[in-house]
Structures are given as C-alpha cells and as structure tokens.
Amino acid sequence: MERYLSIWFPRLLTDWKERHEPNLKGKAFVLAELERGRKVIRAVSAAAQPYGIRYGTVVADARAAYPSLLVYDYDPDQSLILLGNIAEWCIHYSPVVGVDSPDGLVLDISGCTHLWGGEIPYLEKITGKFKTTGYSVQGAIADTIGAAWAQARYGNSPFIIPPGRQREALLALPPAALRLEPGLLNRMRKLGFYQVGNFISIPRGTLRRRFGQQLLDRLAQALGEAREALTPVIPVAPYQEHLPSLEPIQSAAGIEIALQRLLETLCRRLFREGVGLRKAVLTVYRIDGKKQQLEIGTNRPSRHTAHLLKLFKLKTQAIAPGLGIELFVLEAPVVEELTQTTETLWKCHDPADEEAVADLLDRMAGRLGASAIRRYLPQEHYWPERATRPAASLSEPCTTGWRSHVPRPVCLLAVPLAIEVMVPLPDYPPIQFRYRGTWHKVKKADGPERIEQEWWMQQGDHRDYYCVEDEPGRRYWIFRLGLYGKDTPEWFLHGFFA
C-alpha cells in the first residue's frame, strides 16, 4: 500500500532568513522583487502578517499600513535551492523525497513509518525536527500525493487520512486544495463552488465541458484514480536498506551491530533474487545533519554476511559519530547474477578453496586498496604488451588459452627499457649488458625467439627475444629490435623471471 507525506512550509524563505539573521526574529519584514516598475511582495514574515500584509501586495501599499516594515530583496532561486537541501536531509526518513516547489516536499513513506512506531510518531518526529530549527511547518499523510497536499495546506487536525478515505477528507476543502490554476478557481467561485463536495459527484463529462480537463486530472490524482509521478532528488538504488536509531549511536559496537543487521537484511534479499553484490556503500547520518560514507568492493559477487562485515570493519574506524548517528543506510549500487555453478578460479578443485581465495583477496583489497589486486586474461596478440588485458572480475572466464609452450617472465615492463650490450656475433646473445648503471655479465642464455610485428596494427622491425641469466643468478628477458648489417639495432629489457 502506497502512503505519502506532504510537508508544507508556509513561511519558508522568511523563516530561513530569521535563522541566519537572528536579529530579525519577531520583526515585521518582507522579501520583494521588482515587477513592472514597482516592488511586489513575494514572502511575508510571521510578525508582518497581522498587519494585513500578504503575498502579491505592492510594497508602497504595505508601508502605508505599516511604515516600519523592513524590505529585503527576493531571490527567485533561493526557495528551490533551500528545498533541495532540506529534501536531502529528509532522506533520514524516506529514501524517496521530492521537491514540491515553491514551498513544500513530498515523501513516499510506504514501508517506512513502522520504523518510528507508526504514522503518528513518524509525522510528529519530522515536523518536530523542523519546528525546533525555526521553521513553521505542517504535514499530512494520505494514500495519494494530491490528498496529502490538500490536507497539509487546507485541512484540519487530524492530518493523517486513513487508507482509502481521501474522498471523505476532500469534501469540505476548497477547490484550491486540488492545485488548480487561479483562472479556473475564479470561474468556480463565481458559480458558487466553494467546496470540493459541491461538485465531486457531478458527472465527469459535465465537469470537463464546463471547466476543462485539468479539474478532472487533479481530482483523479487526489482520489487515487490516476497515478501521479514523484521525482526523487536523489535516485534510489535498487538494493537499499535503512535502519534508524531510537537513540543516537556513538560507540563502535553500536555501529557494528547496526551494520550487521543491515547486511543480514540485504543479503537475504540478494539470496532471494539470485544475485550478489560487487560494491556496497554505507552512509551514516549524524544528528548534526552531517553524513559520512564507507565503500567496499568485492572481486566476485557476494552475499556472505560475515565476509562483507569483515570488509566493512577494516574501515569503520574512519567513522566519526560526533554527537551520535541517527540513521544508517546500506545500498548495493552494483550487483551481478550469482549462480550455483560459477567459473572455477585458479583451477581450484574444491569450491570452498575458490571462495576462500576470493575472500582473502577482498580483505587484501580492503587494507591495501582495490588497485593492489590485479588479474589478467590472455588476448589474441603476439606482441607481449598486448597479449594480456585486465580482467573485470575474478570470475570472468578466459576467451582464449594462455601460451605455455614458451617461457614468459613473471614481471613484464609496461614499456621496454633501453639497455647497452656487448655482442660477439650478430645473432648471438649479449655477453654482458648495462642496466641501471651496472654491467651484468651473462652466464647463461637461451634464444632467440622471434616475434613479428602485427601487420594489421602497425609496421616495423621484428624482435628477437633472449632469456639470459647473470652471474648472481638473476634472469632477464631482453630483445633486439632490428638486424645487424641492415641498420643499427637497439636492445631493450622487457621483463624479469622468478
């Protein structure tokens, strides 16, 4: 069952200005902008309203009624920016929060209120938070956005419409509660339609001919006969779990308990849907309005709670709870299908060994960083630096086989390093070479192995590779580029053997 909360800020901008300029508290002031050569009021403080000063009043007329009225410039973009910031804060209470410009918010609270003990405590908690920070606020809960909007702005207590009762709640409200255009409202007022109950039972065809489609659309949205879209300020991750705290959490043990509960809930859902996470993000919201995030990644899809908890515990010491954490949000933005039969890694004979290897690599990545763990797969290329590519994950299968009939170094330089050599005959290996300012005398050598350029990619000389061993027993992979007699060949060091 869908439930929505509409939050209305009757004096959003003037309340915000009083919060940032406390000396204005209790004073009559307005925000105005220039329109057709005269200043028109766009926002009125609470202290100015008793003098009959309203939205749309000309400043000169307002000062005639109250000469001491303070006037400040109105910024048309300020309300949208402010609502956006407040909406992000409201993610404490619902993952789906939308801006209802110019003075409200809409929250999709389906499945959220039980975490606070029901709809009444939930509504009191949110509105109480705003009131303590200096905002005038009114909220209402209903099955539809339209009914919640109408009740918040035009209704009376109670501000919670029971499920399926939005029609009864709308009957006594004015037509303006349906979010109709001013011109249409004037026409309805002239015909004596002062309440929704005056026309809600009139046949829809008659209403359409008399007032147009907008009235029918708004009425259908409020009654739940037509769906109304809600655009969240922050897109919701498909896999996300929330855990609010009844009391602010400050201890490491409390953070770990909350994290474990979130992981257990999330992993059960991943198991039901046959997927595992590759990336998880924990966001903690503090009571001072600040938030912190931790992120982990896995080498293969995982839904193993204990393993994921170990990865997070490597980073939880970075969380500074401050005065306390009131909400934990865990999301898995990257998931992959996880089947019972997965590609064997490292040619492990026991699947348990494969999982242990992956878990070990995840812990190493948590300590050293994800860039410290690399896996490569073969490619259909002869040039050594093109013969491999980074794997997307540990479970990504090989599309071609490794060339194991010839030796290859365990460490291959990304760019071959030029060296000096002494060679007795043109096709012989070097008897010594200079690397990093030191001459290495060759004790043993094997080769050459000729590797041609790949003509479909580039043209150039071939390479003749040699495996050489110096007197201390270190083994190197070097090659000659070009031929003696034809030109002056160059020698390069390309890798190191174990």
UniProtKB/TrEMBL annotation:
GO terms for biological process: DNA repair. The keyword DNA damage applies. Signal peptide: none annotated. Pfam families: IMS (PF00817). Coiled coil: none annotated. Residues 9-149 form the UmuC domain. The keyword Cytoplasm does not apply. SUPFAM superfamilies: DNA/RNA polymerases. This is Nucleotidyltransferase. It comes from Chitinophaga caeni. Keywords: DNA damage, Transferase. It comes from the Bacteria. PANTHER family: BLR3025 PROTEIN, BLR3025 PROTEIN-RELATED. Belongs to the DNA polymerase type-Y family. GO terms for molecular function: transferase activity.
